[in-house]
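One-letter codes give the sequence; backbone shape is given numerically. An example follows:

. . .
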Amino acid sequence: MNGYFENKVAVVTGAASGIGLGITEKLLKNGAMAVFMGDLKEETLTKESERLGNEYPGRVHPVMTDVTKPDDVKKLISAAKDFDGHLDFVFNNAGTGLTLPTEKITFEIWKFIIDLNVMGVIYGTYTAIPIMREQGFGHIINTGSLGGLVPAAYQAVYAASKSAVITMTECLQYELENEGLHFSVFCPGNVRTSIFGGLTPPSDSISVEEAVDYIFRGLENKELIIVFPQFGRDIDALYRENRHEFDKWARQIAAERRENYRTKGSYC
């Protein structure tokens, strides 16, 4: 690592598990001055923050946070800014996956996903921007998905939410980079986290540790869109460069998921 994260103050939402926890650990290992861990699950947040606090005394700060509530997000980000007078990184990571047949999708589900996956990111981003503009630096990192870059059957709601996050992040980079701000959005394929619930993760899935390594390499290079693993990069390229072949792949995935729902009641 090139020292990009040393002596920095960071906020991570969804920080008590999965990729968010992996990001928190990586920040601490790479010399972050303080990491403010936002999460809604109090028991898990307490457990993980205490574990990390024992290893990195004085550098771990848990804050109960519901990212669908703007006041909660403001409280989290303000606490980080007040710690040492600067805010260097905000990882808007909290979110959830969803893969369901259309007939099971309700407007309530749409609203839940948009509130969490989109508005939660918007609250974090637009709360941090004025602070970072005033100080003249800062890096905002949003969690997208390969599903937000390429379409897949049974993921219309999830893909729509992640597409919004990706496009918003891109727009802000071009608008605010001349003021010293940086924006990144990372777009994972399958990562072995609780996002799969009780299902067996697909064979192409990677570990959280591998995912975080991809993310941090991209951030050090200030990459705008970080896609991983290689399979994800290949599918993204196929979608953009050879739509005919991509369509064949996407229809194969649709057929497999359709059969899995018919025979197993789940998509994988």
